[in-house]
Amino acid sequence: MSTSNSRDSVECGECGAEIDPRHDTPDHRVACPSCGSTRRCHNVFIAETVVVRDGIGMKAKRQGEKRPFVENYAIPSFSRSRGNLVHRARIIDRDDDRYFEKVTDYESGEVIHHCDEPLSQHRGRGSAKGQKK
User: How does pLDDT run across 32-49, given as a tens digit for each residue?
Assistant: First the structure.
C-alpha cells in the first residue's frame, strides 16, 4: 500500500515572494509585485508513504526425525476472499499437542479466523481436508 501527496509553488527568483503563476504565459512573465523581477523559482514537494510487511517463520527438528516437532509462523498472507494481505500467525506444537492459528486484517485489526485447540483434534482443514470428487 502506498499513498502520494504533492504540492508545488512558485516564488520570485530575487526576493522569494510568492507568485501566482496563472498570470504568467510562455511569452510573457508578470513582474514580481515586491521587487519587479521576472525570475522564477519553482518548488515541488512530493511525499510518498509506503507500507512494508514482512514476517518470520521457523521449524524445529530433532536429529533423525523427518517432521518438525514445532512450527511457528507470523507472516503476511494473501486472502483470496478479501483480496488483500492479512497477518497469519500459526503455531503447530507436536510435543505439547497444540494447534494455534489467528488471521487478522492489517487495515481494520479485525480477527478473521481464530483457532486454538489440541493438535490431535484439528481435522478437516488444509491438507487434512478430504479430496473433492
Answer: 999 999 999 999 999 998
Q: How far apart are CA 34 and CA 11, in angstroms?
A: 11
Other CB atoms within a 10 A radius of the CB of residue 12 amount to: 20
And the C-alpha cell for 16? 522569494
Per-domain residue ranges of the chain: 2-50, 56-128
The C-alpha atoms of residue 128 and residue 131 are separated, in whole angstroms, by 9
Q: Which of 112, 69, 122 is nearest to 87 (CA)?
A: 112
- pTM to 2 decimals? 0.61
C-alpha cell at 74: 507470523
Residues 119 and 100: their CA atoms lie apart, in Å, by 8
